[in-house]
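Annex B.
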Amino acid sequence: MGSRQITEKSLSMIRSLPRISLGNIRDNPGSKITQKRGRGQHGGDKHGAGNKGSGQRQNYMRLGYETGNNPFYLRIPHEPYYKGHHHRRQYPPLSLLELQSLIDKDRLDVTKPIDIASIIKSGLYNMFPDQKQFGIHLTDEGLDIFTAKINIEVQWASEQVIAAIEKNGGVITTAYYDPHSLFLLKNPKKFFESGQAIPRRMIPPPDVIEYYTNPKTRGYLADPEKISHERLKLAQKYGYKLPDLENDACYNMLIERKDPRQIFFGLEPGWVINLKDKCILKPRDEELLRFYSS
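Large ribosomal subunit protein uL15m: predicted structure tokens.
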């Protein structure tokens, strides 16, 4: 048979055979040897499981069992370090240095009251109410360089932070928001587009009611006369002259407050915001008015 015939026969065979793929290739015969079960490490017939007992029967004792002794976790007294940790409220920090930076960059308008909605709108602060985060903790980092005069509402603040803001002629208020209200403040546009009425803000739970009714912490439920007295005491303690708010050009802005049931500045509970028609629908029914005002 000539070489030409061999070539043609090979080509015809290749044409008739299928293409090589993972589905039709296999190892060469004898290239793999199946391993048989061994006789044990030392030539016995136990196969590495030992002689009787838990090792051979595979019925090991549970973790923490000390063969009849009083176990470790019962000998040591119980100290609940993390008791209720999943219920504890978190307040993501925002320093006075960062707040001054937002003001210097015109991300915050100091001619209007500042709350969670305006701070989140700046794009440099965020919070997640579904992760037990209940608002802003204003920290004292940068208090020596803070110079802005603002009306700000936060959820937690120390005495030094309060003094730094009031020294510049500003006003600070600590206010509680329930998680549903925080979701609304985080993304007001999304809520307004849903066409729902603005709900009421819930009152603080019992474990923080003392903080938000205390004039020393500038709680939003505290007596305004007692707050004025505490402002004077704090100025005397830290040795600065308390600015006169009544003669200030921004007096109307500085004294603006939210109602304890109010979520947004300038918008009352029960109102429906129509973004498409750019109008506000207000309830007229006496029962609804009584419900949203309570």
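Strands lie at 93-95, 137-139, 151-154, 156-157, 171-174, 272-274, 279-281. Residues 73 and 79 are 11 Å apart (CA to CA). Further annotation is deferred to the next reporting cycle.
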